[in-house]
Amino acid sequence: MTQPVPKSDIDAAELRRAPRDEVALPTRMIDAQNRAADVLLVNVSPLGFMVREYGSTEKGAIVKLQLPRLGDVPAKVVWSLGGRIGAEFLTPIDQYAYTAMLNAAKARRQRWPMG
Question: What is the pTM of this model?
């Protein structure tokens, strides 16, 4: 079965290859010039993520997302719209490491509630 061709970046976001886990985790994202920015990790999967940001990271940019237990994980931005970006990890996270990261992210979220 083939998937429909996305007509926009939002359509592309809806054609995810893996289900996402909701996390609401404050973290940092580092750009190609090694500048760090505070972001809110909204959801994540072993293949990619969505964050809310104050800046305007462009589609195609290579970034590093700081993840619990994994450190800085490189990714490519595949869409950017209104303070939100979706990105795909350059190398998928293996299931064992992903589960450990997700458990740590959920524990940290409880200590840092968002208002």
Answer: 0.79
